[in-house]
Amino acid sequence: MVVDVAPLLRGEVKRVDIDYRLSPEQIDGVFFDSDAHVIGRITDNAGYMRLVLKAELSYHGECARCLAPVNGVFSLDFERTVVTEGTLTEQQDAEDSDEYVVLNGTELDVDEPLREELLLGFPTRLLCSEDCPGLCPRCGKPRREGDCGCGGKEIDPRLAILKTFFDDSEEENN
Questions:
Q1: Phi and psi dihedrals of 88, rounded to 5?
Q2: Which residues, other chains included, contact 55 with Cβ-Cβ below 8 Å and sequence gap of 6+?
Q3: Which has more confidence, 100 or 152?
């Protein structure tokens, strides 16, 4: 969305409200139920302009550990200082580029920095719960459903010969 901030720059208003829908970038394994709902404002306090947005995005996918369906709403708070072109020094632009959004004349495009922040802030793995125990490596049954009866730890067959070595040495010591 491109916001015209000319009334703010002329001092006619102190605030411009924002309310729109933003199409997010696709993420592998995640399906978005609808576009992100973005609300917020740009405020002017004696020449210091601040952009404050809140985006909410409903999604669904599979748990990365047990493959159970996961549904949720991702919420993101987005705040930046609005500056005009040429205001920032090269050092400020390089060091704090994610602290500012730059006006193009009297227009401010909020989509690109917001999409980037949504992509960076979205969870890298979806989980049905933080303590999801995952699947049994032998039978594939979800461990949250209870014991599957597959037994304890399975020894890596490449290292099984070492177990016999340690068993023999324990018998010699007794």
A1: -80, 140
A2: 22, 36, 37, 38, 75, 76, 78, 114, 118
A3: 100
Tokens of 78: 């987005």
pLDDT of 91 reads 65
pTM of the model: 0.76
Q: Cα dihedral sign for 33, 35, 36, 41?
A: negative
Bridge partners (DSSP) of residue 52 are: 41, 79
CA 32, CA 25: separation in Å to the nearest integer? 10
Where are the strands (E) in the chain, listed by range? 2-4, 15-22, 30-32, 36-45, 48-62, 69-84, 100-103, 107-109
The amino acid occupying position 30 is: V
